[in-house]
Here is the input.
Amino acid sequence: MSKANDLIAEYRSTGTLGLLPAGHFIDGAFSQPAHNRTMESFDPGSATPFARFTAGTKEDIDQAVASSRRAFDTVWRDTAPVERSRILQRASALILENLDLLAVVETLDSGKALQEAMGDVRGAARAFEYYAGACDKLQGDSFPLGPDYVGYTIHEPVGVTAHIIPWNFPISTAARGFAPALAAGCTIVAKPAEQTPFTALLLADLLFKAGLPEGVCNVVTGTGAETGAPLTAHPDVDHITFTGSVQTGRTVMKAAAEDITRVVLELGGKSPVVVLADCDREQAVSGVLGAIYENAGQICSAGSRLVIEKSIHDDFVAELVARTKALKLGHGLGNPDVGPVNSSEHLGKINGFLDRARADGSDIVTGGSVTEDPATGCGWFFEPTIVDAVSADNELAREEIFGPVLTVQIADDADHALALANDCQYGLVAGIYTSDFAKAHRLARGIDAGQIYINEYFAGGIEVPFGGNKKSGFGREKGLEGLVSYCKTKSIAARIG
Here is the structure.
């Protein structure tokens, strides 16, 4: 933490950091395009700008895609898997060596608490470590065609991959896409969110320092309209990995359809946490709190709906309210319990949900209002909020708020809880708290979601495939399935007799 403390002191003294990258990262170097257009990046904890970054154009995207195409065709797809593994291992080590810098920058850009950002950086290092171990184990199958034939499959890298990175988990999302793409032999053009550009740039530089050839990983910053749209519509992109809203996901799919480009979409969520009467009460209360208030609820897989059995509802919600009221808000660099939300625009969106809830007479049992850092009177903060006894047709139970707002739905029993859990347009994840493992696994099979947590929300790690059903998207990231997402399977059958 000594390096982190020095960086925090520098920021508090100067209002910025001297180590922030400038320009796009293309062909193994930072470069400022001739147009020299820039944008401000804001610190959500103070609601003030702390740096500027390059506002890219379609021409910058064209340059980055051409660079990645050259690198794919001439170098990376034919690099031996064991050498790709060594580079990814070195990248993992370099990420950990730069833990403090990456975490402080992530906190300033996104607003999240520093300890959460440090966890994200460690997770990014682990992603590269995991896929480094998979590079030389990406094996095909053989087919039993009889004595006169031989048949087998091989996995080939899909080619140039586009990565649209969201603002809520910038380095985590970048790493979980970059690492398997590189392991498979693909090249990368990434467009980080305009709110959080810096850690993707720093990560690309670390990958180059780890031995990645020029052009294998390029990062272009800017707005979605001026850089994201040209990237997803580019005819020389072979695959798109997108994380973001359903509305933007539809736009990405339409752009990809023009050239029949492959896509993996990780979209929104309204994930239920099912708490049954026989649960471990402390375990469940702590799990529900973490599921909704980590990163101020700005998580696609946040447990934003508590579906609780009626017989324990009153005492359980009373305990939740008491512990929610005790949570401390503050600037991310001060390691609060709950940090700010990412932008003024997003704060207004969250507040709109609660204004409508008040007008509808909803039971807001704690929170429900815009607030500020109690230490400074600044920043984009929303009170940790619980809305009780919400009906299944209420927008609070159906729409993704993407903030520190927990909706409570009351179930008569486990079967009713299952029905409530599935009564949703999303199907990303779900949590279950019960001491009856048979009941837990019956619910896990019955809930329509891509990933289920039992007795620990956010259980698992890079080893566990992640992705959604219904309007939460399709395709899987993480795990070995995430590696196969960046491959084309080729079948070969030969007559030998």
Q: What stands out?
A: The CA atoms of residues 154 and 178 lie 21 Å apart. The mean pLDDT is 97. The chain has two domains: 2-267+475-490, 272-461. The domain at 272-461 is CATH 3.40.309.10 (Aldehyde Dehydrogenase; Chain A, domain 2).
